[in-house]
Amino acid sequence: MSSTAVTGIGQLVTCDGTDPDLLGIRSNAALIVENGLIAWIGSAADTPAADAQIDVGRRVIIPGFVDSHSHLVFAGDRGTEFAARMTGQPYDGGGIGVTVAATRAASDDELTRLLASRIDELRTLGTTTVEIKSGYGLTVADEVRALQIARQFTTETTFLGAHVIPAEYAQDRAGYVDLVTGPMLQAAAPYARWIDVFCEPHSPHAFDVEEARRVLAAGAEAGLGLRVHGNQLGPGPGVQLAVELGAATVDHCTYLGDGDVDALAAVAEHTVATLLPGVEFCTRSPYPDAARLLAAGASIALATDCNPGTCYSSSMPWVISLAVRELGLTPAQALFAATAGSAKSLRRTDIGRLVLGNRADLTVLDAPSYLHLAYRPGVPIARALSLTASGEMPAE
Amino acid sequence: MSSTAVTGIGQLVTCDGTDPDLLGIRSNAALIVENGLIAWIGSAADTPAADAQIDVGRRVIIPGFVDSHSHLVFAGDRGTEFAARMTGQPYDGGGIGVTVAATRAASDDELTRLLASRIDELRTLGTTTVEIKSGYGLTVADEVRALQIARQFTTETTFLGAHVIPAEYAQDRAGYVDLVTGPMLQAAAPYARWIDVFCEPHSPHAFDVEEARRVLAAGAEAGLGLRVHGNQLGPGPGVQLAVELGAATVDHCTYLGDGDVDALAAVAEHTVATLLPGVEFCTRSPYPDAARLLAAGASIALATDCNPGTCYSSSMPWVISLAVRELGLTPAQALFAATAGSAKSLRRTDIGRLVLGNRADLTVLDAPSYLHLAYRPGVPIARALSLTASGEMPAE
Question: For residues A391 and A387, what is the distance between their CA atoms, to the nearest angstrom?
């Protein structure tokens, strides 16, 4: 077991502070990493001896981003659909079928290669933990395959057989819900930590509240944690369902009524509102009101929703810049939501904060201050730090 | 003189087409580069022999971005001002004084090192030509120094002594205009191709139309081409002044009346409206109406305005994604404006289009289609291609 000292840190953002300094910023700090974990944090002047040393040249160290919502196992290209949407074609979830067809047609090797390349990309943008959903297979074999491939890269895998009703079940919605909650769940559960459902009355392809309730109840019965896609395309029952069932997170939260905000605030200890502003950017939709959620006392997270339809960006820094520009968050609130907040939505305490004993998932910013994440939009200033000893995306 | 073949091009975007295919896209194409210039373009199957070969692996090749508006010679940090503005503090141009003080205090070596690092950054984001303005010196010696340093990196240098009225001349505006149009211009002109002025009645720090006219007339007399910052913070005379004087470009164009649009359309052959949507993003301002300009027949360009106050982004891909989301441009129109359009605003025909005899400034996109510039916001898919033979930012 070797140790690595990380020194020359211009600004250490631990995300372990208390409001109003959520970020717990330390200056003149250093870290010791052992076996992929943080073994020591203190003043640079007191740094103990270590087997190796990385000097980050007065740059900023933050917790690696936790991207708690992605759909990265897919094949095919939908750039043309995106361009059409930018000229006014609305999004209703129907394009998912295009990706389903391409994903089913791809080989295991091709899907694995594509996913590996996407994981490389997000690490170069500073993300160190990613949640990955299935949902472009929609058959027992294809959903299981997606989860098995995702599982090679993360423990945070989510069974999303209830992404859309596939075309072949358009006339038999109940039959598809039977499949998802029966044989598909049974086959998928060993490879998934979570179950998720696209609960959205405004899309004919998505699931209504009773269908979603069946899916989530079956998932809970199978031992999976609950996540919900809710209130994306218009007001809907997704938030209330997630709160009622004690889901870890309800994602999107674009259209919230006062009752939804109050409900999320009441369960802030264990249910997070995950905001995905990249989707609103890429679908030219209104943005969620993050400041209202925070003012009410709700817990929030930020994630990319990286997917080929509604947001093909893997960049958490870009999401942070949008959250500051468009959602009314301060740069500190946005960074906290993208690290500790997202970790909370995964019910993880070992990531998202740089404290003793936590994973040494460190991201370095080529900047004098974390403010540059919002101040320098579109510039790739963040990257996951590779530690010679142990920090290279350790097996979870 | 050695030659390099560029092969394996999945999509070649020449930007030499005609409306509605502005982009002049070729498939199965290859290029030969000799001495930094395009010596041959044709079908891959017919590629002549060359001394070296670069296979770009089925990626996209586009003309390198032309960033025709930047303020890259500066020292100091304004991240805190940015964060304050995001909580509601308006922008009126006053923060420029902060950068002036820091820039004057920096050594030549420090300014050169900072600029070199910014040039590296923009090349990694796909930009191959950048215009650089002075304007953070505002003394004869400091303006000349900025231009001399900028000149080491580009021939497209712009004298912007008329950026703001410096604090020490606040009570003697006419005296400062005398300085800018007299001794400062005389000393700066040998190092500048262009002169520019911040003509903005809505900022107490900027220049009114008569002051701006004096500055531009003196610059023309000294042999410099004309550029104007106009109509940024509200309706104003900048566009009309630029048109009247035959400027190559009027930049920002955020607030245009019908008369401004008509005037720009009438001079589309030689005066470009340069849009800088990163500024509207970073100052939370309304966006210019690019579609209205195009519909009227005006020429448009896109640039970053990379500067420490109102847009500290050097990313042309990010600007393109904003132009599609917020300005109503198609991905093709946005890419054309960021290459051939920006080249036109610099009155250059040797860049911005990939045609025989032009500079081989090639940018490669890690994507199957140029659409990904808009489809993948925040993801650094573009980079300037380094050619072993000649393509590495050749001296201009």
Answer: 4
Q: Which helix (H) or strand (E) holds B106?
A: none
For strand B249-252 and strand A60-63, is the pairing parallel, antiparallel, or unpaired? unpaired
Residue A274, H or E segment: strand A272-275
pLDDT digits (tens, 9 = 90+) for B42-58: 999 999 999 999 999 99
- E strands, A22-110, are 25-26, 29-34, 37-43, 52-55, 60-63, 65-67
ipTM over 0.85: yes
Burial class (CB in 10 A: 0-12, 13-18, 19+), B213: middle
- Cβ-Cβ contacts under 8 Å, B281 against chain A: 325, 377
Please, which residues have CB within 8 angstroms of residue A51's CB and are 6 or more apart in sequence? Answer: A2, A3, A4, A389
Decide: residue A145, CB within 10 A, 0-12 exposed, 13-18 middle, 19+ buried. buried
Structure tokens at A166: 């596939």
Element (H, E) at B362: strand B362-365
Q: Tell me the whole-structure pTM to 2 decimals.
A: 0.96
In the structure encoding, which two tokens stand for residue B62, read together?
Answer: 């586009």
- Pairwise CB contact (< 8 Å): A82 & B374: yes
pLDDT one-digit tens code per residue, B337-349: 999 999 999 999 9
- Phi, psi for B325 (deg, rounded to 5): -70, -45
Q: Chain B interface residues facing chain A, Cβ-Cβ under 8 Å?
A: 77-80, 82-83, 86-87, 121, 124-125, 278, 281-282, 284, 312-315, 317-319, 321, 324-325, 330-331, 367-369, 371-372, 374-380
